[in-house]
Amino acid sequence: MFTRRTALLGAAFAATAPVLLGRGIAAASESMTPVGLPADLSTLTRRKVELVRPPFVHEHEQVAGTGPQIIEFTMTIREQKMVIDEEGTTIQAMTFDGSVPGPLMVVHQDDYVELTLINPESNSMPHNIDFHAATGALGGGALTLINPGEQTTLRFRATRPGTFVYHCAPGGPMIPWHVVSGMNGAIMILPRDGLKNEKGEPIRYDKVVYVGEQDYYIPRDEDGNYKEYDSPGDGYSDMLEVMNGLIPTHEVFNGAVGALTGDNAMTSKVGETVLIVHSQANRDTRPHLIGGHGDYVWETGKFNNPPEKDNETWFIRGGSAGAAMYTFLQPGVYAYVNHNLIEAVSLGATAHFKVEGDWNNDLMEQVSAPGPIPRG
Question: Where do the domains of the chain lie, and which CATH numbers do they carry?
Answer without folding.
Answer: 4-31+45-190 (2.60.40.420), 208-356 (2.60.40.420)
